[in-house]
Every structure is written in C-alpha cells, then in structure tokens.
Amino acid sequence: MSETEQSDLAIRALISSGEIDHATEEAIRLYGPELIGWLCSILPPDCDAQEAFSRLSEDMWKSFRRFDGRCSVRTWCYMLARHVASRLRTQPRRSQEELVSSIPSVVQAVTHVWNTTRANNQRVQDVYAEIRSALDEDDQALLVLRVDRDLAWRDIAIVLLGENADPDEITRRAATLRKQFERVKTRLRELAAERLSE
Question: Across the chain, what does the average pLDDT equal?
Fold first, then answer.
C-alpha cells in the first residue's frame, strides 16, 4: 500500500470517528498543494485562486459529514474543487471574512499550504499554462487529472460527473475519457511542434 493510500485511509478513519476538523486539516496538508495547482490550471486568469482554495477547504470541512467512501478522499476533494471552480465562474467574489470555516486550525492549515505551494509552483505553472491554455476546458481538466495527478479513469469520471452518478454511468464515462485522452495527447504534440517551430 502506498503512502498516499495509507494517508487516505487515516483521513477516512478520522471522518468515520467524527473528527471532521482534524480530517480537514489532514486532507488540506496532504492534498492541498496538488489541489491548488489544479485550481490554478482550470480557473480563468481573472479568478482568484486563493479564494477558490479557501472555498474548497470550507467545502471539504462541510462535505466530510456526508462522505460515504465510494471513492478515495483524494478523488472526493478533486470533485469538490471542480464544483468550486464552476461556482467561481458565476458567483461574485466574497469578502475575506466569509472565507473558510472559523476553525482556527483549519484556517492555519489553509494559509500555510497556500503560501508554501504558491511560492514553489508559480514559475512552473506559468510555463505550463501557456501550452495548456490552447486546449478547451474539459481537455485541460482531463490532462491535469490523468497526467499530473495520476488519477484512475474511474476516479476522473467521478470528479467530472459528481457524487450522485450511478456506477454504470461512471464506467461508461471512464471508457469515453480514455479515448478523449488520446485525442488530447495528439493535440499537445501538435501544439508543441508549433511552438518549437516558432
């Protein structure tokens, strides 16, 4: 069992025992950096990624009470991140006072992970975003989830379809995503060739 799988099981145990604050802190610590990277990659440039991460952290804290274990905690967090990104495109910005839960330890974890991750990843993300921006939104999400985050096809289908999708629909979508991914790889090769020829 990998270290990530062990950590995921530990968070599940915290959720099962009702330790939602602690489970949220651990999920933010474990998955926060990669979730920030994904949010930055799927949000339009005019969206505030820090606000998105704050909203995501709050959604994690609220939703862990209904987490039923049909997927990993990691997959659940990616699904929530996608919902946050969708909401941010249509909802007005909230004031800082409205962001994140009032649990001090969760706020501290969010702030620490945000500050550390942004400093380390900004330079890499700028270059990556330039090539990726030529893809449409769904292809961008697929690329990041499969390549950067190494999620299984079933888990990606859950992230894209949501928590209420039935198992047959998830299986069908996973098969479709495999084919879509091949098309995305071809498009990326074309984009890379164009950039190299400039």
Answer: 83
From residue 181, how far is each of 42, 51, 127, 171, 187 by CA, in Å? 16, 30, 21, 16, 10
pLDDT digits (tens, 9 = 90+) for 135-176: 888 888 898 899 888 899 999 999 999 988 999 999 999 999
What does the DSSP 8-state code read for residue 92? P
Report the domain count for the chain. Answer: 1
Q: What whole-number distance in Å separates Cα of residue 26 and Cα of residue 11?
A: 7
Residue 96 is predicted with a pLDDT of 46
Alpha-carbon dihedral 149, 154, 155, 161, rounded to 10 degrees = 120
CB 83 within 8 A of CB 39: no
Please tell me the distance from the alpha carbon of residue 152 to that of residue 33, in angstroms, as a whole number: 19
Residue 124 vs residue 11, higher pLDDT: 11
pLDDT value, residue 149: 86
**Taking a C-beta distance cutoff of 8 angstroms, is the pair 31, 11 a contact?**
no
Query: Is there a contact between 161 and 170 (Cβ–Cβ < 8 Å)?
Result: yes
User: For residues 143-152, b (16+ Cβ closer than 10 Å) or e, as one string?
Assistant: bbbbeebebe
Give the domain extent around 39: 3-197
Q: What is the pTM of this model?
A: 0.67
